[in-house]
Amino acid sequence: MRVLFAGTPAVAVPSLDALVQAGFDVVAVLTRPDAPVGRKRVLTPSPVAQRAAELGIDVIRAAKVDADVTARIAAVSPDVAAIVAYGGLIPPAALDIPRHGWINLHFSLLPAWRGAAPVQRAVIAGDDVTGAVTFQLEAGLDTGPVFGTLTESVGPEDTAGRLLERLSHSGAVLLAQTLSAVDTGKAAAQPQQGDVTLAPKLTLDDGRLDWHQPALAIGRRARGVTPEPGAWTTLDGQRVKLEPVRLRPDATDVAPGALVLDGKSVLVGTGSHAVELTRIQPAGKKMMAAADWARGMASLESVVFE
User: Fold this and answer.
1) CA distance 215 to 246
2) Do residues 106 and 171 lie in contact, with contact meaning Cβ atoms separated by under 8 Å?
3) Taking a C-beta distance cutoff of 8 angstroms, is the pair 248, 274 a contact?
4) What is the pTM of this model?
5) Is the pLDDT assigned to residue 119 strictly greater than 80?
6) Which residue would you say has higher pLDDT here, 35 or 105?
7) φ and ψ of 280, to 5 deg
8) How far is CA 155 from CA 75, 158, 160, 220, in A?
């Protein structure tokens, strides 16, 4: 079966590898254009583009699937298109090209968390279980019938990044199995069932921690926005980046945003009990252990996160 693979970030690479290893004829890869990376903003191919080049697969770079890109997709005559976090909408003209349509690997248990940031939103919301599904892509936002499902527990210290890494590998297996079933005529997609929730793309503001919120909510948000866009707060009007915090239910007498030392631990007050900082990156400096940062401060008594 001839497969067009569409994907961009690192979490899509295991799926591309899985399809190649399963023996599918991946005739082309659709991915986002090269993007500036690092402090020097060097134009760099997407992780999927880099892997496709290593595998000797032709790459179509496109920020938008317009008429020209649609024609290029049609020219490779795919039987099916597999899509994993491509990062753009697929218009009806392109959806209609493969005879088996487009099959999307989505990292949530649809219809929960339809959208661009399903794992991140699940962690922020405090879901105990998430997962991945393969479904038939339609013009609507993640509305199509589901072929296959897998579940994954969300651990108390899981960040969105760790969870996505696990799901990228288990989901790759699910995607290969789904395409095999489609190829042999054994696939049977079922309509989505349950309550719909939306997972819009995260912005920088989603990473800001509100110290008047309960500690549990702050901890979930910090884990949900790690690694991107990252958790942060402000100190003296400047943005300070934070890695995920630890809950400290034993410390209940610290005011929201206030910092205190507890032995070698740096605690911050919240709307409930305190949380413990792990690593911090002050403006203009590198990420460092919170204890090292605190030792460089004259006093924490007057320090308040805003």
Assistant:
1) 9
2) no
3) yes
4) 0.94
5) yes
6) 105
7) -140, 145
8) 45, 5, 11, 11
Query: Tokens 């993640």 correspond to what residue?
Result: 142
Would you mind telling me the total number of residues written for the chain in this entry? 306
What does the pLDDT average to over 115-136? 98
Predicted confidence (pLDDT) per residue in 160-211, tens digit: 999 999 999 999 999 999 999 999 999 999 999 999 999 999 999 999 999 9
Task: Report the pLDDT averaged over residues 280-296.
Answer: 91
Distances (CA, A) of 153 to 44, 58, 129, 170, 246: 34, 37, 4, 13, 19
Residue 125: name the closest of 225, 240, 247 by CA: 225
Can you tell me the distance from the alpha carbon of 197 to that of 83, in angstroms, rounded to the nearest whole number? 21
How far apart CA 8 and CA 168 sit, in angstroms, is 13
Cβ–Cβ under 8 Å, residues 142 and 103 = no
Structure-token pair, residue 242: 């934070």
pLDDT attached to residue 298: 67
pLDDT digits (tens, 9 = 90+) for 83-92: 999 999 999 9
